[in-house]
Specification:
- This protein is mainly alpha-helical.
- The chain has one domain: HPT domain (Four Helix Bundle (Hemerythrin (Met), subunit A), Up-down Bundle), CATH 1.20.120.
- The longest helix has 26 residues.
- The radius of gyration is 14 Å and the shape is elongated.
C-alpha cells in the first residue's frame, strides 16, 4: 500500500505559513527595539522547522535558503549587535515566503507587515 504524501506536504505548507508568521511577529518585536535573545532564538527555531520539513519533502532550494538565513542570524546573534534589527527588517521573512510560495502549488504567501495567505 502506497502512502499518499500529498496530505503530509499540505500539512508542511500550513506549518511553514505558521512559522513565517512567527518569524514576522518576532522580527517586529526586534524592530521595536526589544533586543531579547529569546526572541532571536524563536526565529531560529521557526526557520529550523521550515528547513527540516523542506529537506524532508525534497524542497532543496527552500532548505538551502533557510540554512543561509539561519547562518546569517547566527553570525549576528554572536554579537547581538543592533545590525540584527536591520537584517530582520522583514527581508528574511519575505525571502522565505517567496520560496515557500514557489514550491507550494496554488498557494500565495504575502510579504511585509500584517501579511496573510490566500
Amino acid at each position: 500500500m502506497a502512502i499518499d504524501l500529498n496530505r503530509f506536504i499540505a500539512t508542511f505548507f500550513d506549518e511553514a505559513h505558521e512559522h513565517l508568521e512567527a518569524i514576522e511577529e518576532r522580527a517586529m518585536t526586534l524592530n521595536s527595539g526589544k533586543q531579547d535573545p529569546e526572541v532571536l532564538n524563536a526565529i531560529f527555531r521557526a526557520a529550523h522547522s521550515i528547513k527540516g520539513g523542506s529537506g524532508t519533502f525534497g524542497f532543496t532550494q527552500l532548505a538551502e535558503a533557510t540554512h543561509v538565513m539561519e547562518t546569517l542570524f547566527d553570525d549576528y546573534a554572536e554579537t547581538f549587535a543592533g545590525h540584527v534589527v536591520e537584517v530582520l527588517d522583514y527581508r528574511a521573512h519575505d525571502i522565505l515566503a517567496r520560496f515557500v510560495e514557489t514550491v507550494a502549488p496554488g498557494r500565495t504567501f504575502a510579504s511585509g507587515p500584517g501579511c496573510r495567505t490566500s
